Known about the structure:
By secondary structure, this protein is mostly beta strands. The chain folds into two domains: 9-59, CATH 2.40.50.100; 73-194, CATH 2.40.50.140. The chain has no helices and 16 strands. The strands form four sheets. The protein has a five-stranded mixed beta barrel with strand order 8-9-10-12-11. It has a four-stranded mixed sheet with strand order 1-6-7-3, with no helix packed on it. It has a three-stranded antiparallel sheet with strand order 2-5-4, with no helix packed on it.
Amino acid sequence: MDDQSQVELTCVPGQRLCLADKEHISGCGTYERQGYIYSTLAGMVKVAKQDKVSVIEVHTSNDQSIVPAPGDIVTAKVTVVGQRFCKCMIKCIGNTVLTRPYRGMLRKEDVRATEKDSVEMIKCFRPGDIILARVLPITEVRSYNLSTAENELGVVIAHSEAGVSMVPVSWTEMQCPKTYFKEPRKVARVVPESIEVE
C-alpha cells in the first residue's frame, strides 16, 4: 500500500494491509501480527502522518459497522446444499442482528472435527435450516468460510416436511413432533432456553 496515495481503500476484518516496519505502525482499527498490519474492522483505510511515521488506521462507515470476523459465532440460514459444501446467509453475529446478510460457505471438511471423510452434506443440513457456526480466517473477500466442527455448533432450528419445528433426539438426528419422522442433521448442542423460534 502506497502511503502517498490519496485513493481511499476499503477493507474487511482480517485483511492484510501492509508491512509493519519503522515507517508504518498500527493505529486505530488495526493490529500487528508477524510483521504485518491487519484490519480489525470493515471500512476505509486511512494513513495518518506523525513525524516520519505513517499510522495505518481503519474507520468504519456509518451504515453497518459490524461484520463477521474470524472467530465470531454467527447465526446463518442454509440456502443451498451441495455434495462438497453448503451456502448460507449470515443473519446475526452473536446476539446482534445484521442490517444486511453476508454470504457464507460451509465446506464438507469443516462440518465435523472427526470422521471428515464420511461426512455427507445432505445428511447434515437442508435448505432453510438455521445453524450456529464459527467464522474461519478470511481467504477471499466477500465470502466467509464457516465451521460447525465444535459440539455447540450445527443445526439449531429445522422444519420437517410437515412444516413443524423439529426436536433434536441425538447428535445426528432431529424428529418431527407431529409425524415422529426422523431426519439426519449435524445437531448443535444448545441449551433449549437459548433457542428463539419466530
